[in-house]
């Protein structure tokens, strides 16, 4: 964990290490299987895999900002947002990230970047319009804790490895089929085995990422509540943001849905939400129950 006054979470650290080890091992095995199956395609496979990984890791902040249509703003352009971030960074004793604003009515916020010194903290205009100052600080503290815990970089890498698996499979299969001429029995076998292996890799990495994602949200809620000393404000913001999702047009929610793993609250209508093995966030009830317990502990 980066040096800061955010409460450390050994459970989160352990889960991040285990998740990255398992996904990394899975990725190595997957690449090895493709090398064996596709033989002559292995140089292209390794180049594509390494290239996509490096781009995602080094430019994750820019990719996320571009995808959300976010723009960096100065203190003069967004004084309320910068003021809240300044106060929280001073309180947490951590570097101030770049501050961005996304022009969308979906009330949310996210943080991204490979390290605290390269982080970007983004809030939407919909969030800024709806929250009171204490609620906004609770949400921003939640996002800053992701940066301090470094789980932003971990979840970025973990969630992208499944995508890499798909890309590498397509490239390798295309190259292998071209050399085989698409006529012998080996080609038919490859057309069955390679997509099957890719699907297994994707499903396993997807489930591991979801498990980590749900835990890190609870950890960020706890760290933010303890730092600000106002778990009730964070609970109020969480309730308000989640409740407002039902009023957002479905088209707008679908547009930002790829960022759900990074959002403060999932951009999905509560009446459509099925919190189960596939969800990126814990249920609203569970998060509120945890915050209620923290509030009681602080009261004592």
From TrEMBL:
BP GO annotations: proteolysis
Residues annotated as catalytic: 143
Topological category with respect to the lipid bilayer: Multi-pass membrane protein
EC top class named in words: hydrolase
Binding site for Zn(2+): 142, 146, 217
Transmembrane is among the record's keywords: yes
Names of the cofactor(s): Zn(2+)
Keywords annotated in UniProt: Cell membrane, Hydrolase, Membrane, Metal-binding, Metalloprotease, Protease, Transmembrane, Transmembrane helix, Zinc
Assigned EC number: 3.4.24.-
InterPro entries: HtpX_protease, Pept_M48_protease_HtpX, Peptidase_M48
The keyword Repeat belongs to this UniProt entry's keyword annotation: no
Single GO cellular component term: plasma membrane
Co-factor note (free text): Binds 1 zinc ion per subunit.
Domain Peptidase M48, first and last residues per copy: 76-292
Location within or outside the cell: Cell membrane
HAMAP family per the UniProt record, alphabetical: Pept_M48_protease_HtpX
Protein name, as recorded: Protease HtpX homolog
Source organism of this protein record: Wenjunlia tyrosinilytica
């Amino acid at each position: 964990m980066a040096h800061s006054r955010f409460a450390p979470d050994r459970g989160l650290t352990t889960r991040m290490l285990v998740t990255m080890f398992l996904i990394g091992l899975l990725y190595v095995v997957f690449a090895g299987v493709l090398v064996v199956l596709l033989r002559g395609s292995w140089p292209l496979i390794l180049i594509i895999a390494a290239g996509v990984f490096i781009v995602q890791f080094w430019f994750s902040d820019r990719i996320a900002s571009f995808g959300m249509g976010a723009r960096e703003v100065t203190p003069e352009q967004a004084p309320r947002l910068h003021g809240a971030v300044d106060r929280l960074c001073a309180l947490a004793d951590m570097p101030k990230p770049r501050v961005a604003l996304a022009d969308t009515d979906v009330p949310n916020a996210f943080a991204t970047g490979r390290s605290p010194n390269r982080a970007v903290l983004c809030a939407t205009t919909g969030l800024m319009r709806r929250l009171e100052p204490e609620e906004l600080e609770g949400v921003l503290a939640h996002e800053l804790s992701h940066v301090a815990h470094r789980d932003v970089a971990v979840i970025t890498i973990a969630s992208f490895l499944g995508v890499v698996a798909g890309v590498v499979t397509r490239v390798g299969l295309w190259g292998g089929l071209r050399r085989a001429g698409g006529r012998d029995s080996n080609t038919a076998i490859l057309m069955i085995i390679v997509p099957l292996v890719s699907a297994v890799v994707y499903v396993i990495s997807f489930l591991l990422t979801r498990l980590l994602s749900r835990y890190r949200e609870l950890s960020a809620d706890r760290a933010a509540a303890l730092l600000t000393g106002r778990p009730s404000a964070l609970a109020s913001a969480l309730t308000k943001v989640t409740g407002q999702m039902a009023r957002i047009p479905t088209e707008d929610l679908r547009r930002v849905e790829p960022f759900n793993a990074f959002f403060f609250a999932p951009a999905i209508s509560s009446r459509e939400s099925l919190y189960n093995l596939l969800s990126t966030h814990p249920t609203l009830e569970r998060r509120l129950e945890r915050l209620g317990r923290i509030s009681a502990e602080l009261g004592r």
